[in-house]
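Recap slide: Putative pdz domain-containing protein, sequence and predicted structure.
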Amino acid sequence: MFVTLSSVIGDTTATKPRSSALAIEDTLVHVSYFHDANSIAILALPATCASAEQMQEHIDEIVTVIRLQYGSLSRAFRDQETCENVDRLFDLFFSATLTDCKAPRKEVFAHSLPCAAWLPLPTNIQARTDSVLSELESANFGDMSEAFYESQRLFTFVGSCLFYRGHLLASHLPKQHFLNVFLFCRHYQLLRLTSTECVGQLVVWRE
């Protein structure tokens, strides 16, 4: 129905719809659309869980994460394995969003902001933190140095960032790279996880 509606509106107005609303058993539901080449992503939530503006932010963020992992919407649904991974992403999203509907308004507001929560540090500690990140990015120590393997590394660091208990302490990443990392961590609930649990090590690798 929503795909047909999007197509009809596009043919009639020569513009692609971004949002619509409908009532289901007296409950207002917001629907958001994202067009990617010949593919379309559709997201719907009760108005009690998200406003029309928040729905636009939600779908933009989810599509950003999917594109980061698979390159495009169409590639994300090519085979069973990637479909299962996307299902997991949406399962986490809906679980967190529907839980937030029952949470205090201040907590929901903080989780829905399209930016990272930043924890300001004293100047000397901030300088030390930035120094540690710079040292990591140089990768010129221990078994990470080129001298250790006597060969040139096959990769370079674009930058790095540091979160503590869900709060950003420092970032040396370009804006778009940081946004990708932040949204990936947010929608896979890694920021919430690290705010309540100790995580020893987690490696996510994509080429």
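The chain has nine helices and five strands.
The chain has two domains: 2-112, 123-196.
(End of recap.)
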